[in-house]
């Protein structure tokens, strides 16, 4: 262990490896503090502690430390495991913590720069028989402590036992499979648990690219009819984007209340079990794609007094989703919605809410005996309500809107309804004509970001930096130096001229590179090693540039990563791409352990390219995939030997945001001729319209299950361009590129 020398510590350590350094009166007895500096000393201290005692880990790095903390305290005199200085004890490498016993406190520890050798970083049991109860886990940090292989599963905090409190911790940066936190109910001693999860900061979790990216899961399907009684309140969920379920409730009797969900893609989901309540929560989507609200499945669920604003999710990710169930459903599928109560919520500036969502041959049981009343519904969308099955089993009354778009659920329309923002930062109806008996209550007080997480932990700024504009002369060395010196948010303005790169530029931050005088004025040329390498965290935007690959088989853009440590994003605007005859690489390819949140090509011209354009197929990745969404608009591709796009995923699970593909208002001439021009496997969302395809290869498309918009029409295709389209069930669908499908 390494640590900063201190006179006091040296004095103590001279006396003994484990030493009582302080003694304080505690309930009439002398409670002891054991300051320990290595793992052996910790083991000795653990054998000596009694009720009221504290073990203090000395400041510094503790590497490869698998801690077992098993002791018995009392309500008045708990046994504590603490950092000498909160935030100054770092558990790194192959480290974890197992907790067993009663009335314990763990605080001030930081797990980082490593991963657990087991499938639990913090386990509230030391073995199957020794659970943790009446334990407080407070002011700890787990950050960037993920297994190297994102497909290998673990969870950061796993709760067993009863009456445990998880408060004022920070959890952020998980990039591998498995919920960040789990409440397990596998034995009677962990049921009816009354756990309290409060005032924690759940920070960024990037998209996983597969199933198992929940931030919090309470129970599993096998124990979903078991009462958990867990309370989740006053936590801050910020950009928790792992998968479509931010909180997955798979048990009964739980309360999710007074939390803030900030720009988090996904929803709070009543996945299994009944008698749960989601109330007085605040959702700020801020227009971020795929931000969802609350999804209802099963019986006796209550959604009350919530505020949801700026959400952009559709179908399963709608602001409110009431699903269809499976008749006589097994526990791991979808039970029919029954006796749901949805009252006095505010849904403001959202894209869609849906009823009977997921209706198909299997999910044919529409909601019954349910009520939606007293809600405020405001959206500028033409069709903000999706009705996917019979909704006669839901009574709608007293819901107020300013839009005729809610006529499908009989909302009361008040055309002159206006809103004003109150001191609590939320919007409420204004004017004397509004009686205020609908929508979210005015006494909501969204918990502040600063009130969550450890006091010693400095959170990163919530807003992305604006950056500076930096002029770069027409010189390759100056260009490379500018990229290396750039700060997140900067824009590099390249002078007129050519910039020839001998090796790729590595991008790992948010950066814009912009040419002068349009794409004819500034050119970037690369040799056989490619032009840009994209690492985790990259958000590369290129504008008004001409790009040329001069030789070799390397891709122009390559997403790199032996292990997954976060997503990247690529956007090209007003960019032309050309390649010499000797260059045969793709424009964009990626390593299997990478993931793109979004790839956008807008007003891009590609002429004479001897490889593929986008190669992110996902073949052979067993359901994992390489990008959520690829968007190509207003672009021109001609004389491209390979495919325009190879993209998609295998499998049918409904936990991910994609893959989705858009191709609109674009021209394909001699693209993938005699072979495949567009190859889309397992696509959830598709917009393929108003394109011209001439002397172009086959278009292959296979749908997946989530049911996002799937539109294909208005494409002018020569007879040489054929379409093969398969549905979710693998059966061929009779459609054409011109007439298409909705």
UniProtKB/TrEMBL annotation:
What Pfam families does the record tag this protein with? Chondroitinas_B
Cleavable signal peptide: 1-31
- Keywords, in A-Z order: Signal
**Keyword Cytoplasm attributed:** no
Q: InterPro entries per the record?
A: Pectin_lyas_fold, Pectin_lyase_fold/virulence, PL-6
Organism domain of life: Bacteria
UniProt KW Signal keyword: yes
Full protein name: Poly(Beta-D-mannuronate) lyase
- Source organism: Parvularcula marina
């Amino acid at each position: 262990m390494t640590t900063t020398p201190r006179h006091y510590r040296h004095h103590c350590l001279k006396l003994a490896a484990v030493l009582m350094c302080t003694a304080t009166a505690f309930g009439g007895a002398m409670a002891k503090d054991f300051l320990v500096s290595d793992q052996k000393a910790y083991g000795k201290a653990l054998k000596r502690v009694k009720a009221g005692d504290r073990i203090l880990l000395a400041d510094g790095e503790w590497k490869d430390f698998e801690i077992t903390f098993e002791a018995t305290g009392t309500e008045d005199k708990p046994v504590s495991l603490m950092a000498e200085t909160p935030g100054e004890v770092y558990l790194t490498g192959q480290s974890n913590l197992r907790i067993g016993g009663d009335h314990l406190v763990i605080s001030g520890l930081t797990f980082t720069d490593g991963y657990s050798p087991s499938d639990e970083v913090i386990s509230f049991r030391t073995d199957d028989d020794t659970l943790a109860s009446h334990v407080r886990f407070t002011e700890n940090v787990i950050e960037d402590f993920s297994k190297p292989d994102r497909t290998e599963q673990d969870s950061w905090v796993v709760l067993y036992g009863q009456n445990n409190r998880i408060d004022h911790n920070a959890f952020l940066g998980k990039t591998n499979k498995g919920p960040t936190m789990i409440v397990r109910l596998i034995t009677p001693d962990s049921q009816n648990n009354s756990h309290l999860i409060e005032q924690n900061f759940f920070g960024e979790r990037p998209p996983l690219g597969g199933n198992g990216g929940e931030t919090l899961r309470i129970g599993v399907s096998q124990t979903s009819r078991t009462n958990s009684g867990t309370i989740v309140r006053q936590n801050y969920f910020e950009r928790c984007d792992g998968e479509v379920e931010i909180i997955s409730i798979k048990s009964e009797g739980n309360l999710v209340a007074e939390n803030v969900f900030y720009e988090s893609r996904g929803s709070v989901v009543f996945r299994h079990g009944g008698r749960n309540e989601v109330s007085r929560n605040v959702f700020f989507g801020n227009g971020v794609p795929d931000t969802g609200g609350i999804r209802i499945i099963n019986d006796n669920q209550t959604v009350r007094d919530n505020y949801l604003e700026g959400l952009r999710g559709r179908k399963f990710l709608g602001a409110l989703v009431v699903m269809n169930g499976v008749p006589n459903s097994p526990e791991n599928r979808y039970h029919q919605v029954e006796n749901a109560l949805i009252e006095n919520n505010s849904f403001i500036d959202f894209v869609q809410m849906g009823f009977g969502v997921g209706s198909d041959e299997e999910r044919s049981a529409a909601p019954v005996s349910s009520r939606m009343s007293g809600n405020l519904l405001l959206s500028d969308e033409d069709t903000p309500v999706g009705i996917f099955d019979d909704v006669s089993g839901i009574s709608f009354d007293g819901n107020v809107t300013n839009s005729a778009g809610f006529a499908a659920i009989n909302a009361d329309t008040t055309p002159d309804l206006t809103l004003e923002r109150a001191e609590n930062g939320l919007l409420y109806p204004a004017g004397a004509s509004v009686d205020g008996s609908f929508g979210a209550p005015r006494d909501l007080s969204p918990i502040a970001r600063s009130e969550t997480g450890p006091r010693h932990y400095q959170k990163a700024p919530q807003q992305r930096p604006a950056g500076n504009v930096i002029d770069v002369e027409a010189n390759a060395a100056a260009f490379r130096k500018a990229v290396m010196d750039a700060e997140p948010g900067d824009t590099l303005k390249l002078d007129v001229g050519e910039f020839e790169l001998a090796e790729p530029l590595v991008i790992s931050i948010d950066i814009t590179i912009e040419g002068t005088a349009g794409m004819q004025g500034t050119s970037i040329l690369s040799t056989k090693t490619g032009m840009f390498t994209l690492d985790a965290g990259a958000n590369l935007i290129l504008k008004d540039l001409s790009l040329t690959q001069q030789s070799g088989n390397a891709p122009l853009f390559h997403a790199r990563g032996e292990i997954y440590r976060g997503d990247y994003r690529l956007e090209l605007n007003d960019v032309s791409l050309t390649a010499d005859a000797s260059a045969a690489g793709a424009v964009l390819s990626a390593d299997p352990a990478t993931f793109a949140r979004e790839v956008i090509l807008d007003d891009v011209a590609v002429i004479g390219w001897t490889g593929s354009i986008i190669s992110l197929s996902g073949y052979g990745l067993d359901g994992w995939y390489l990008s959520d969404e690829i968007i190509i608009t207003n672009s021109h591709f001609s004389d491209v030997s390979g495919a325009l796009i190879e993209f998609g995923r295998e499998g049918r699970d409904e936990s991910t945001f994609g893959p989705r593909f858009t191709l609109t208002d674009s021209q394909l001439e001699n693209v993938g001729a005699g072979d495949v021009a567009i190859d889309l496997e397992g696509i959830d969302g598709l917009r393929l319209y108003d394109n011209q395809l001439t002397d172009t290869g086959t278009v292959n498309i296979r749908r997946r299950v989530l049911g996002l918009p799937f539109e294909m029409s208005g494409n002018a295709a020569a007879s040489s361009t054929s379409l093969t389209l398969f549905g979710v069930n693998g059966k061929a669908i009779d459609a054409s590129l011109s007439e298409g499908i909705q």
